[in-house]
Specification:
Number of helices: 5
Largest sheet: 4 strands, antiparallel
Strand content: 15-25%
Shape: globular
Strand order of the largest sheet: 1-2-4-3
């Protein structure tokens, strides 16, 4: 299997991705019309879901998304290579219950 370089995925995410927190759920997603690239992103990150996204009057897109625990692990991979979405990526890492530093602080 071919894997994309994580810095390439971070660049894609900077331009096409989003991070949200709603109802105590972190979500990261990215979409674009190139199915092949999105399949490689999904295979490289080894988590999340990839689905077709239809928008009326627009070209078909493919959306990759993940939530909660997977967000933490993806954010940790993207963090060294992210610029535009750096603050949001850091929020995911800092607020994740899966962050070992946060687990240590709780005890």
């Amino acid at each position: 299997n071919y894997k994309l370089d994580i810095s390439y995925i971070a660049g894609l995410f900077d331009g096409k991705g989003s991070v949200s927190y709603k109802n105590k759920v972190w979500k990261m997603e990215m979409s674009m019309p190139d199915k092949n690239v999105m399949e490689l992103v999904h295979e490289t990150l080894e988590c999340g879901t990839l689905r077709e996204k239809k928008v009326a009057g627009k070209k078909k897109h493919w959306r990759w998304q993940c939530s909660n625990r997977n967000c933490f692990f993806v954010a940790r991979q993207l963090w060294p290579h992210t610029t535009v979405k750096l603050h949001k990526i850091e929020q995911v890492i800092d607020h994740s219950i899966f962050n070992p530093i946060r687990i240590i602080k709780r005890t």
